[in-house]
C-alpha cells in the first residue's frame, strides 16, 4: 500500500468516524440528559432507541429547505458550510493513536486555533445573512464571545506548549509519557475547558442561541439540512474540543494495558460525558457576566499561568 | 509546492481586487478574508508556517471579525450601496492603477534582474521566529507591546470616564 | 465556583436515581377515582335511565358540547330522546356532573379515547350509557322525589308521608 493511499484511507476513515460519532452524540446526549433528569429519553425506535438518529436524519433531509427571501442568499448558504468544513478540517492534525493521524503538522496546535477562529465566521455570517433581529443579536453575541474566549484559549495552551517545547500535537502527546499535563497545568486546563465551552457555544455558554431570549439565535431562520449542518457541526465541535483536551492535558493515547486507540476513545468519552453533564447541571449565565468572567478573571489567570510556567521552566534549565 | 504558491497568489490578487470593487460592504469584507487566507497559504508555501497560522488567527480570525461586527451593527442598506457607487467613479481608479503599474514594473524588473527567483524552501519554525523576535528585534517587539498597552489603557480610560458620568448622572437624578 | 461543582455532583448522582418516567402504553399511571375523564350516563339500581332530560348539564356546559332532547314515556317518566356529547369540544371541567340533580351524568377516570376521525368523538346515548350505577350506588331518583309517576303515587316515596288532604279538618 502506497503511503499516499494509506493517508487518504486514514483521512476518510477519520472523517467517517467523526461524522458518525457526531450523529451518535445526538442520541447519547438525549439519553444521558434524560437520565440525569430522572427521565428515560428516546428508547422506543430500535434497540435502546438508537434508531432515533435515523429518524432525525430522515426528518432533517426531507424537511423543506427554506431560504428566506429577505436574506443575503449566497452568504446564507455559505455560512453552515463553513462551520462543518473548519471543524472537520481541524481533525486533520489530531493524533488519535501512533500512526492514525492525517498530517503531522509542525504547527498543529496553531492550525487548530486558526480553524476555530475561521469557524466564528460561520455563525457571524449566519446571523447577519438571515437579516432578522434575533439572528443578528445571536451573531453579535457569538462574535464577541468567541473572539474573547479564543484569546484565553490560546493563552491557556501556552503553558502546555512551553512545557512540551513544541506546537506539534504528536510531540506534545509524546512528552506526556511520564506525567499528564493536567497535573502541572491544572489552571490552564480549567481555563481551556471554560473557553472550550464558550467556543463550542454549548450550554451553559450558549448565549448566542439562548432559546429563551433569542429564540434560536443565529440559526433562527435556518431549516432542513442547513440547520442540520449547524446541529451536527456543534457536536463535531464538542468532539474536537474533547479530543484536544485529551491530547493536550490527558496524555493522548498513553495508558497501560489497553491498546492506544482504546485509551484515546475512553478519555474522549469521559470528556464528552462531562460536556453533557455541564449542560444538564449548569444554568446559563447572563451575557455580560460571562464576558466579564472572561476578561476580568480568566485573562489575568491565564497570563499568570503563562508567567509562572515560564518562570519555573527558566529556573529549571 | 511552487504551483500551490502561484495559485494562492492568484487567488489573493483576485480576491483583493474584488474586495476593492464590491459595493456591498460585507461582501467586500468576505473577499478580504479570502484574500488574507490566500496570503496565509502563500506564507505557508514560502516556508513560514508559523506566520501563516498567525495570519489566519489574528488577521482573518480576529481583526476582520471585529470589522464584520461593526458592519453588522451599522446595518448598511441600499442607500449605502448607492453612495458607494457615487464615490467610486471610474476616474478615481486612474491614480492607484498607475502607481500599482509602476510597482508591477519594479517587481518584474527585480525578478528579471535576479534571474530565476528562487522560492526559499527552508522552513522557519515557531522557535526561530521567537528567538528572532526576542533577540535582534527585541526593541521592535517591545515597542509594539507598548503601543498595544497604550491602546488597552486608553480604551479602558475612555470607557471608565463615560461609566462614571453615567453613575453620577443617576445619583443626581 | 464551589456551588457549580456541587451542582455538577448532584446532577451526576441523579444519573443513578430511579426514573420517574411511566412507560405509558405498557404501564399506566394511577388515576384517582375522582379523576375527571370520559363522561358516562348511569342507571338506576332497577336498570332505568337516571337522566330526566332537565337540560341543566347542557346549560351549565361552558363549551356547549352537550345536546339532548327530553321525552316522556307512558308512565310519565322522563328520559332523554337523544343525548349527545361532542368530546372533541369537551374540556372535562365536571360542571355537568355538579349540575345534575339525579346523579345521571358522571365523569370517570378514563382518558384513552383518542380517535383518528373527529366525528368519532361525538358520543351518542348508547355510547354514553353504562349498565351500572357509577359513583352513587343505590340511589334512585324517582324513589326519592315526590313526583307521581306510573306505579308510584304521591307519598309513596322513601321518607315521605302520605299527602295531607287540605279540605279535611281532622288533624
TrEMBL record, chain A:
EC numbers, comma separated: 7.1.1.-
Entries under InterPro entries matching the protein: NADH_UbQ_OxRdtase_su1/FPO
GO molecular function: NADH dehydrogenase activity; oxidoreductase activity, acting on NAD(P)H, quinone or similar compound as acceptor; quinone binding
Major localization listed first in the record, in broad terms: membrane
Localization per record: Cell membrane; Membrane
GO biological process terms on file: aerobic respiration
UniProt keyword list: Cell membrane, Membrane, NAD, Quinone, Translocase, Transmembrane, Transmembrane helix, Ubiquinone
Keyword Transmembrane applies: yes
Pfam families registered for this protein in UniProt: NADHdh (PF00146)
PANTHER family to which the protein is assigned, alphabetical: NADH DEHYDROGENASE SUBUNIT 1 (PTHR11432), NADH-UBIQUINONE OXIDOREDUCTASE CHAIN 1 (PTHR11432:SF3)
Assembly and interaction partners: NDH-1 is composed of 14 different subunits. Subunits NuoA, H, J, K, L, M, N constitute the membrane sector of the complex.
Family according to the record: Belongs to the complex I subunit 1 family.
Name the record gives this protein: NADH-quinone oxidoreductase subunit H
The organism's taxonomic lineage, starting at the top: Bacteria, Pseudomonadati, Verrucomicrobiota, Verrucomicrobiia, Verrucomicrobiales
Gene that specifies this protein: nuoH
Automatic annotation (TrEMBL), chain B:
Ranges that cross the membrane: 6-21, 28-50, 56-78, 90-112, 132-155
EC number: 7.1.1.-
One function term, GO molecular function aspect: NADH dehydrogenase (ubiquinone) activity
Coiled-coil region: none
One GO cellular component, as annotated: plasma membrane
Alphabetical UniProt keywords: Cell membrane, Membrane, NAD, Quinone, Translocase, Transmembrane, Transmembrane helix
Catalytic reactions on record: a quinone + NADH + 5 H(+)(in) = a quinol + NAD(+) + 4 H(+)(out)
UniProt topology in membrane: Multi-pass membrane protein
EC class name: translocase
Subunit structure: Composed of 13 different subunits. Subunits NuoA, H, J, K, L, M, N constitute the membrane sector of the complex.
Function: NDH-1 shuttles electrons from NADH, via FMN and iron-sulfur (Fe-S) centers, to quinones in the respiratory chain. Couples the redox reaction to proton translocation (for every two electrons transferred, four hydrogen ions are translocated across the cytoplasmic membrane), and thus conserves the redox energy in a proton gradient.
Protein name as it appears in the record: NADH-quinone oxidoreductase subunit J
Organism taxonomic ancestry: Bacteria, Pseudomonadati, Verrucomicrobiota, Verrucomicrobiia, Verrucomicrobiales
Automatic annotation (TrEMBL), chain C:
InterPro entries: 4Fe4S_Fe-S-bd (IPR017896), 4Fe4S_Fe_S_CS (IPR017900), NADH_quinone_OxRdtase_chainI (IPR010226)
Keyword Membrane included in the entry's annotation: yes
Pfam families: Fer4_7
Keyword set, alphabetical order: 4Fe-4S, Cell membrane, Iron, Iron-sulfur, Membrane, Metal-binding, NAD, Quinone, Repeat, Translocase, Ubiquinone
Main localisation: membrane
Enzyme Commission number(s): 7.1.1.-
Gene Ontology cellular component annotations, sorted alphabetically: plasma membrane
Top EC class of this enzyme: translocase
Record flagged with keyword Membrane: yes
Annotated positions binding [4Fe-4S] cluster 1: 51, 54, 57, 100
Protein family per UniProt: Belongs to the complex I 23 kDa subunit family.
Annotated protein name in UniProt: NADH-quinone oxidoreductase subunit I
Native species: Rubritalea profundi
Amino acid at each position: 500500500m502506497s503511503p499516499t493511499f494509506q493517508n487518504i484511507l486514514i483521512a476518510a476513515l477519520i472523517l467517517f468516524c467523526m461524522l458518525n460519532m457526531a450523529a451518535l452524540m445526538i442520541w447519547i446526549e438525549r439519553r444521558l440528559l434524560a437520565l440525569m433528569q430522572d427521565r428515560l429519553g428516546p428508547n422506543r425506535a430500535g434497540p435502546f432507541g438508537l434508531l432515533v438518529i435515523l429518524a432525525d436524519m430522515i426528518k432533517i433531509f426531507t424537511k423543506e429547505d427554506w431560504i428566506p427571501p429577505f436574506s443575503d442568499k449566497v452568504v446564507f448558504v455559505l455560512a453552515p458550510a463553513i462551520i462543518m468544513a473548519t471543524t472537520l478540517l481541524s481533525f486533520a492534525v489530531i493524533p488519535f493513536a501512533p500512526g492514525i493521524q492525517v498530517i503531522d503538522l509542525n504547527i498543529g496546535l496553531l492550525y487548530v486555533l486558526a480553524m476555530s477562529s475561521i469557524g466564528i465566521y460561520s455563525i457571524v455570517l449566519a446571523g447577519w445573512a438571515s437579516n432578522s433581529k434575533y439572528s443578528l443579536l445571536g451573531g453579535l453575541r457569538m462574535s464577541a464571545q468567541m473572539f474573547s474566549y479564543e484569546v484565553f484559549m490560546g493563552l491557556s495552551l501556552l503553558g502546555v506548549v512551553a512545557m512540551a517545547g513544541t506546537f506539534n500535537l504528536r510531540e506534545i502527546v509524546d512528552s506526556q509519557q511520564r506525567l499528564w499535563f493536567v497535573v502541572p497545568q491544572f489552571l490552564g486546563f480549567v481555563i481551556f475547558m471554560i473557553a472550550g465551552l464558550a467556543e463550542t457555544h454549548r450550554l451553559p455558554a450558549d448565549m448566542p442561541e439562548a432559546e429563551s431570549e433569542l429564540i434560536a439565535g443565529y440559526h433562527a431562520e435556518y431549516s432542513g439540512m442547513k440547520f442540520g449542518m449547524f446541529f451536527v457541526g456543534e457536536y463535531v465541535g464538542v468532539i474536537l474540543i474533547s479530543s484536544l483536551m485529551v491530547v493536550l492535558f490527558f496524555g493522548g493515547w498513553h495508558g497501560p494495558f489497553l491498546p492506544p486507540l482504546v485509551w484515546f476513545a475512553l478519555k474522549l468519552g469521559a470528556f464528552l460525558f462531562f460536556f453533557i453533564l455541564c449542560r444538564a447541571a449548569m444554568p446559563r449565565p447572563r451575557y455580560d457576566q460571562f464576558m466579564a468572567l472572561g476578561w476580568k478573571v480568566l485573562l489575568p489567570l491565564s497570563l499568570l499561568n503563562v508567567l509562572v510556567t515560564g518562570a519555573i521552566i527558566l529556573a529549571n534549565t | 509546492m511552487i504551483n500551490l504558491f502561484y495559485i494562492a497568489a492568484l487567488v489573493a490578487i483576485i480576491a483583493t481586487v474584488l474586495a476593492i470593487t464590491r459595493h456591498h460592504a460585507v461582501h467586500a469584507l468576505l473577499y478580504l478574508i479570502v484574500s488574507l487566507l490566500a496570503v496565509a497559504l502563500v506564507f505557508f508555501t514560502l516556508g513560514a508556517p508559523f506566520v501563516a497560522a498567525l495570519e489566519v488567527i489574528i488577521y482573518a480570525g480576529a481583526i476582520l471579525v471585529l470589522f464584520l461586527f461593526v458592519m453588522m451593527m451599522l446595518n448598511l442598506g441600499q442607500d449605502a450601496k448607492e453612495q458607494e457607487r457615487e464615490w467610486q467613479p471610474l476616474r478615481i481608479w486612474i491614480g492607484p492603477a498607475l502607481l500599482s503599474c509602476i510597482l508591477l514594473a519594479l517587481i518584474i524588473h527585480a525578478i528579471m534582474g535576479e534571474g530565476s527567483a528562487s522560492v526559499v524552501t527552508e522552513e522557519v519554525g515557531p522557535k526561530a521566529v521567537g528567538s528572532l523576535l526576542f533577540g535582534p528585534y527585541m526593541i521592535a517587539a517591545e515597542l509594539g507591546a507598548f503601543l498595544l498597552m497604550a491602546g488597552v489603557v486608553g480604551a479602558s480610560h475612555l470607557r471608565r470616564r463615560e461609566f462614571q458620568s453615567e453613575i453620577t448622572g443617576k445619583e443626581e437624578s | 465556583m464551589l456551588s457549580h461543582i456541587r451542582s455538577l455532583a448532584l446532577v451526576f448522582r441523579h444519573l443513578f436515581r430511579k426514573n420517574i418516567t411511566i412507560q405509558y402504553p405498557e404501564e399506566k399511571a394511577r388515576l384517582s377515582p375522582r379523576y375527571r375523564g370520559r363522561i358516562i350516563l348511569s342507571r338506576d339500581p332497577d336498570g332505568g335511565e337516571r337522566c330526566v332530560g332537565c337540560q341543566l348539564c347542557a346549560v351549565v356546559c361552558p363549551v356547549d358540547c352537550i345536546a339532548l332532547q327530553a321525552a316522556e314515556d307512558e308512565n310519565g317518566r322522563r328520559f332523554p330522546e337523544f343525548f349527545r356529547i361532542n368530546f372533541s369540544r369537551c374540556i372535562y371541567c365536571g360542571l355537568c356532573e355538579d349540575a345534575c340533580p339525579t346523579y345521571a351524568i358522571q365523569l370517570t377516570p378514563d382518558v384513552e379515547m383518542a380517535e383518528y376521525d373527529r366525528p368519532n368523538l361525538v358520543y351518542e346515548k348508547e355510547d354514553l350509557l353504562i349498565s351500572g350505577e357509577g359513583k352513587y350506588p343505590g340511589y334512585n331518583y324517582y324513589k326519592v322525589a315526590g313526583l307521581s309517576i306510573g306505579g308510584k303515587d304521591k307519598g309513596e316515596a322513601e321518607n315521605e308521608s302520605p299527602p295531607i288532604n287540605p279540605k279535611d279538618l281532622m288533624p
